[in-house]
Every structure is written in C-alpha cells, then in structure tokens.
C-alpha cells in the first residue's frame, strides 16, 4: 500500500496492519510516526521530519508544547470527564477566556470542528425562527462553492465535492451555494427566509484560497443590512494561523458567530466551540442542544491554556513575520516549477506546475527529504507548519521544496 521506495520493513508492517484493520477513508503518506516535538515528527525508525501539515492546523502550538502538556497533566491528575450534569472548576475560566479572546459574550463548547459547524447551523436557524421571524422550517443558509466544513450528513449536504457526497444522500435541505468571494451573488440569493451566510475567511481545503480584499467587508455590511447572521468558520484559519488571532481581522471584520476547533484543543484533544453574543447563544435552553464530552474538564483546562498562549499575541506575531519570509521565498519559485502561491501568515497553498507531476508526487519527494506536507486536490501543496517553528527550520523545508522541484524537473529531462 505504498508507492514510496525505501520504507523499512517495520514501517511496511505497521502500514499493512493499518490498511488491513482500519477503514480506508484516508490516503496517508507512507510514514509511521512515533513521536513529536515542536515542529518535528520522528518515525518508528528514528527518522526526523519537519511537520508542514500540523494536523491541518490542530498543532499550531507545536507538538508536545510544554505549557499545554503541563495543563493537561495537571488536569489528568484531578478529574477528566464529568459531563455537563454538574459544574466543573476549569469550565468557567475556559469559556470566559475564550469569549474575551473573541470579543463576544458567550461560548458553546463542542468537540470536533464539524460539531461546531452543526451547532452554528442550529443556532442560526433558531435565531431565524425566534428572533428574525422566519416561517418555521423554511430557513435557508447561504454557503460558498468549494467549501469545506466537515463530514457529517448535513454538512456534506452543502459540499460540492462529489467524492465526499456520492452515495451518502438523501441530503439536508436548506442551503444555497454561491461562488466564493462573490458578494453580489450572495445579495441575490438572500430572501426573507435567509438566516445566515456561512463562510471560511480563507478556504483551506480548497487550496488556501484567499478571497478578494473587498469580499469580507462587503459581506459584513450586507449581512448587517439584510439582518442575516455572518458565520465565520475559523476552524482552520483561526487561532494564529494567518498571523492574526482570526483571519477575519485582516479585513477588519467581526462575524456574528465564530466557529473554532482544531488548534483550540492545543494539539492534545478535540475541542471546538461556537462563540457569539447573548442575542444568539442565549437562545439555547436546557435540553435543546448538548454533547456528553463538550466542555469536559480536560478539554476546558487545555483549551484555557491554549487561549492564554494566544492572549499574548506572540504566536500571531511569529506567524505574521515568518509568514512573510515564507511567502517571499515561495514567490521566487513562481515560474520555476510553481504556478501560484496563495495564503497568509504561516499558511500557503502552492500550485505545482502540472508538467513536473502531481502535488502528491512532490509530497513524496518532500517526505524523502524530511518534510511532511500534504497535497489538496491535484496540483496544490498546503504548507502549514506549527507556529513555533524557527526561521532556520522554515528555510530547511523551503530548501527541500526547491530541491524536490529540481529533481522533478531533472526527471523530465
Ligand atoms: C477541519 C475543518 C472542519 C472540520 O473539523 P473536524 O474537527 O475535522 O470535524 C470544519 N471547517 C473547516 C474550515 C476545517 O478546516
């Protein structure tokens, strides 16, 4: 199950076991990881790799971040799961700190990102019926083409990725798709039953697609004017990835609801949340929504520590400065094996010249040079190292990319 030469027998055995007993819903790179520290991962044979995927931005704070690990260990020794049937000591401080980080009133914690999306959809519909006065069961939500919001039945209902949808219907109604970045198309779709516009401020899985500069401010204005909620899915773009706490900040825009996940769990466990003001989150009453694990003491302790790391602004600054360096170097590759570079901060989508091969073929070459990066679609490599990476490590990975492209070119003759 591997197309990379030189995989050791031990790794081959581990891969074979995975492929035999585990469902094949991913196409992993042929490397078996044993441990991680900072921006580095080590495989079971002791080979080291720079992690340029960061588990899709779940590991923004780096592997084994000492502050987050200590917060987890301290909480592990006390109590880990209580359910929300009782109050727990870390829960209050966590929701207060996260609400303050977002400049909002209230937090609804869940576990995975897609649960935050589902919760945001439920809240927007409830707000529509109870506050806006939308006719019951007629609410619609406007979504963007090429979105990625997760994999549940409702969320794939408004995906246009056929691989993610085929043979999983029937789908949930109530969603309308418009081209990403087109505020006129959104304005045309809004009617009296529209409760929300759901948007990624930068589309991650689509290939780190940055919308036109005017898009988010115009969307914010439109949503306010037409009494429609603006929901920003910052699950991948948020928490420092783009050089600010939220990608929306680059446009000076504040959404009505933030959807957060991935890095909120500090790279330790799944923690997600919907964050907004009381006029929306205050509509939830006991029994109307919930999750056994949402906001559990361990998640709250780690989530609080993650928020505290972001409060200083240091990581955002790092991401911004090192991101400029990353993008500057990547731009020099345009025309040299690279067709285009997109992104912000320590987040880049790099389109590989199809003449040199697929993005995946370049990812294999990166792997053999000690860099783990993942393709998205045919021609894009996504680069998203932990924000704790050093400039030297960053340069090492970019050098590996330059070298991988040179090798691909040499193979073409
Ligand atoms: C990853 C992601 C999700 C889904 O998060 P899961 O934790 O995998 O459920 C939703 N939205 C965006 C933008 C994402 O990148």
From TrEMBL:
<keyword id="KW-0808">Transferase</keyword>
<keyword id="KW-0032">Aminotransferase</keyword>
<dbReference type="InterPro" id="IPR050103">
    <property type="entry name" value="Class-III_PLP-dep_AT"/>
</dbReference>
<keyword id="KW-0028">Amino-acid biosynthesis</keyword>
<dbReference type="InterPro" id="IPR010164">
    <property type="entry name" value="Orn_aminotrans"/>
</dbReference>
<comment type="pathway">
    <text>Amino-acid biosynthesis; L-proline biosynthesis; L-glutamate 5-semialdehyde from L-ornithine: step 1/1.</text>
</comment>
<dbReference type="InterPro" id="IPR015421">
    <property type="entry name" value="PyrdxlP-dep_Trfase_major"/>
</dbReference>
<dbReference type="InterPro" id="IPR005814">
    <property type="entry name" value="Aminotrans_3"/>
</dbReference>
<keyword id="KW-0663">Pyridoxal phosphate</keyword>
<comment type="similarity">
    <text>Belongs to the class-III pyridoxal-phosphate-dependent aminotransferase family.</text>
</comment>
<protein>
    <recommendedName>
        <fullName>ornithine aminotransferase</fullName>
        <ecNumber>2.6.1.13</ecNumber>
    </recommendedName>
</protein>
<dbReference type="GO" id="GO:0042802">
    <property type="term" value="F:identical protein binding"/>
</dbReference>
<dbReference type="GO" id="GO:0030170">
    <property type="term" value="F:pyridoxal phosphate binding"/>
</dbReference>
<dbReference type="InterPro" id="IPR015422">
    <property type="entry name" value="PyrdxlP-dep_Trfase_small"/>
</dbReference>
<dbReference type="GO" id="GO:0055129">
    <property type="term" value="P:L-proline biosynthetic process"/>
</dbReference>
<keyword id="KW-0641">Proline biosynthesis</keyword>
<dbReference type="InterPro" id="IPR015424">
    <property type="entry name" value="PyrdxlP-dep_Trfase"/>
</dbReference>
<dbReference type="Pfam" id="PF00202">
    <property type="entry name" value="Aminotran_3"/>
</dbReference>
<dbReference type="GO" id="GO:0004587">
    <property type="term" value="F:ornithine aminotransferase activity"/>
</dbReference>
<dbReference type="InterPro" id="IPR049704">
    <property type="entry name" value="Aminotrans_3_PPA_site"/>
</dbReference>
């Amino acid at each position: 199950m591997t197309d990379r030469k030189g995989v050791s027998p031990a790794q081959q055995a581990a891969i074979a076991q995975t492929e035999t007993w585990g469902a094949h819903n991913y196409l992993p790179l042929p490397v078996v990881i044993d441990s991680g520290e900072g921006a580095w991962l080590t495989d079971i044979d002791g080979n080291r790799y720079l992690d340029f995927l960061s588990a899709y931005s779940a590991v923004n704070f780096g592997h084994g971040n000492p502050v987050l690990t200590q917060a987890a260990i301290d909480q592990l020794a006390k109590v880990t799961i209580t359910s929300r049937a009782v109050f727990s000591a870390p829960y209050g401080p966590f929701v207060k700190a996260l609400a303050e980080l977002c400049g909002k009133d209230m937090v609804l914690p869940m576990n995975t990102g897609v649960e935050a999306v589902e919760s945001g959809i439920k809240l927007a519909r409830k707000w529509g019926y109870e506050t806006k006065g939308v006719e019951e069961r007629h609410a619609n939500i406007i979504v963007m083409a090429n979105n990625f919001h997760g994999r549940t039945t409702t969320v794939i209902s408004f995906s246009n990725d056929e691989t993610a949808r085929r043979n999983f219907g029937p789908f949930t109604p109530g969603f309308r798709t418009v081209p990403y970045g087109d505020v006129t198309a959104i304005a045309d779709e809004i009617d009296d039953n529209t409760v929300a516009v759901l948007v990624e401020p930068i589309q991650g899985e689509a290939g780190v697609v940055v919308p036109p500069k005017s898009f988010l401010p115009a969307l914010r204005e439109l949503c306010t004017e037409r009494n429609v909620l603006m929901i920003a899915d910052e699950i991948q773009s948020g928490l420092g990835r783009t050089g600010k706490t939220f990608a929306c900040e680059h446009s000076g825009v504040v959404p009505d609801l933030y959807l957060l996940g991935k890095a909120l769990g500090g790279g330790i466990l799944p923690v997600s949340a919907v964050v907004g003001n009381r006029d929306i989150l205050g509509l939830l009453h006991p029994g109307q929504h919930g999750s056994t694990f949402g906001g559990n003491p361990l998640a709250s302790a780690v989530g609080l520590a993650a928020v505290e790391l972001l409060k200083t602004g240091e990581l955002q600054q790092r991401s911004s400065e090192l991101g400029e360096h990353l993008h500057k170097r990547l731009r020099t590759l345009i025309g040299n094996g690279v067709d285009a570079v997109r992104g912000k901060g320590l987040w880049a989508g790099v389109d590989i010249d199809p003449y040199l091969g697929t993005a995946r073929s370049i990812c294999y070459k990166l792997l053999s040079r000690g860099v783990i990066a993942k393709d998205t679609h045919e021609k894009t490599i996504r680069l998203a190292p932990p924000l704790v990476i050093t400039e030297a490590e960053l340069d090492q990975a970019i050098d590996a990319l330059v070298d991988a492209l040179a090798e691909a070119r040499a193979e073409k003759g």
